[in-house]
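Bench notes, afternoon.
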Amino acid sequence: MKDIFLERYHKIDLHGYDRDSARVAVNDFIDENIILGNDTILIIHGIGTGIIKKEVHETLSHNKHVLEYKTDNFNDGCTIVKLIIK
């Protein structure tokens, strides 16, 4: 089942990234969306072994612009992120 409402969010696809590249890409993506005023973004990390998902969640937990995040209910391969927009 596909959640059609996720299509409206800005997203980044991290398939093929290693841990370090994913961390940098996520932080850069958050910074870009803060500037654009987007309060919700989507990070596609895939399922695989869970290494990238774990790194993404670790990165999000330390980013001061992140209000909350959760794995999508319909797809374990992506995380929905709420940002603090001032």
